[in-house]
Each structure stands twice: as C-alpha cells, then as structure tokens.
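call fold(seq) -> tokens
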Amino acid sequence: MKKTYLEPTEQAAQALFTGGIKGEVVMLNLLRFKETADYSDYPELAPDKPVSGAQAYQKYMEFTTPFLEQSGGKLIFSGKADHFFIGPENQCWDLIILVKQKSLADFMAFASNPEYLAGLGHRTAALEDSRLLPITELKP
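ret:
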C-alpha cells in the first residue's frame, strides 16, 4: 500500500517548532483529493448526499477561512495543479495552496483552535494525500 501523508508526525512538529523560524512563514500545501469524500470517521459533518473530495475540501476552506483570518493568516494563492514539469512522473496534485502566517505562534494558535478543529473532518474526508512545507523568505 502506498504511504500517504495527512497529519504531521511528532518528529516533524518538534523540528518545525524548534527550528528557530522567526517572523512570517508561508505554508505550501500540495493536495490530492479522493474521488468521493469519505466521512466515515466524521458522520456528524457528512453532507446528505455523497460529494467529491474536491467538494469536501471546499467545505473545509469555507469553514476554515474565518479562523485563519482571525489568527492573522491569509490565503495568498490557490491554483490547480497536475503533473510536474520537472519531478517525479508518478506524482500529481489537484490543488496548490499558499497560506501566510505572521509567525509560527500564530499558526499554532490557528491549528489548535478548538472551533477550527471541529471542522477538520472535512479536510480528512477530502484528501487522498497531501504535503505541507513551511517556507521562510530569504533576506539579503
């Protein structure tokens, strides 16, 4: 079975928060959707009729955006993706998102907000696989 990445590991979280990132951070999201969203672990969030992974992710974004903005975060790019021009031929992504946060502390405040976490099941139901890469700007 192919390994998927939907949640951070404890080691990755520790490396992120002990890595000395100061100031703004941009999160690069690479997302691959399930054909049909799987709400079996989140029946309370499930729509009345089956939806695609892309539709479930849209529900996640609609739910999440107010919490993101409340924490000082901002969606700075969202775009359709496909196969790499340079990169592994067997990897493709449905959506690329860039989200900016003023700091890792602001990101953590967003990611640990209980109200935000109540809708996280839409993301889980939607995704087949994902990558999340924190990026910091190089200063001259």
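The longest strand covers residues 25-33.
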